[in-house]
Amino acid sequence: MAAEDLRALAWLHEIERTPPVLVELYRSGFPQTLSLLLPEHVAVTQMAAALAALAETPKEDAPRCTDDLAADYAGIYLTHALRAAPYESVWRDEDQLMMQAPTFAVRDFYTRHGVVVQNWRHQPDDHLSHQLRFVALLLERGERREASRFLRSHLLVWLPMFTEKVGQRAQTRFYADLATLTLACVEACVERLPRVAVIPPVFAASTVSSETGCGIG
Question: Residue 216, SS3?
């Protein structure tokens, strides 16, 4: 069930989801259907409130609501205007650049497990959605120690900083609450996994893309 939660969150971070899609997700029971968090967890109740507000938006306010969500999505995931990019490299590279050594350290971890990001030119390997799907895949394979190692060595190193910035700078409740919910789920997930050694931040320099393996993007 934890893997399903992470895949659902990856789906939300992957591309812009329109208000009707988000409302339908809410009416299907999200986020209370998440198994990693109790329904009364603050991250769940906040996201539920944000989606409920979206579902109750008056018709005359719908265009403005759509525009606000689109602006936040673009500012976080496309133009990086909010300076809260969903890429590990931006948070761990000393120059805060994309596609630097941290990206390829993530790729190396994927490669060891036969995983290749198919759309890496559009969304590099260290994109939040790819990392969430990778952990889900490891959990589905029963590789709990490796899932824990990846979370502790990669995702949990930078996700708290991403969450803080999105919370400070997003103009919509939805994206601020999505970041908070994602972090809460990842933290809950790692608490259920074995404690393992963290891979030290010695980043590989390889930029070669493999064309074989199991795709996650």
Answer: coil
53-82 burial by CB neighbour count: b if 16+ within 10 A, else e? Answer: ebeeeeeeeeeebeebbebbbebbbeebeb
pLDDT digits (tens, 9 = 90+) for 74-130: 999 999 999 999 999 999 999 999 999 999 999 999 999 999 999 899 999 999 999
Note the pLDDT tens digit of each residue in 44-56. Answer: 999 999 999 999 9
User: Would you tell me how many other CB atoms lie within 10 Å of the CB of residue 115?
Assistant: 21
Q: Give residue 201's pLDDT.
A: 76
The matching CATH number, chosen from 1.10.3480.10, 3.40.50.620, 1.10.1520.10, 1.10.540.10, for 2-215 is 1.10.3480.10
Question: The pTM is what?
Answer: 0.92
Distance CA 115, CA 102 (A): 17
Q: How many Å apart are CA 6 and CA 135, to the nearest integer?
A: 8
Identity of the residue numbered 23: V
214 phi and psi angles, rounded to 5 deg? -85, 125
The continuous run of DSSP H or E covering 112 comes out as: helix 101-112
Helix (H, G, I), strand (E, B) or coil at 214: strand
| Token pair of 100 as six digits | 């630097």
**Contact (Cβ atoms closer than 8 angstroms) between residue 132 and residue 139:** no
Please give the full DSSP string across 45-109, using - where no structure is assigned.
HHHHHHHHHHHT--GGGHHHHHHHHHHHHIIIIIS-TTS--SBHHHHHSTT--SSSHHHHHHHHH
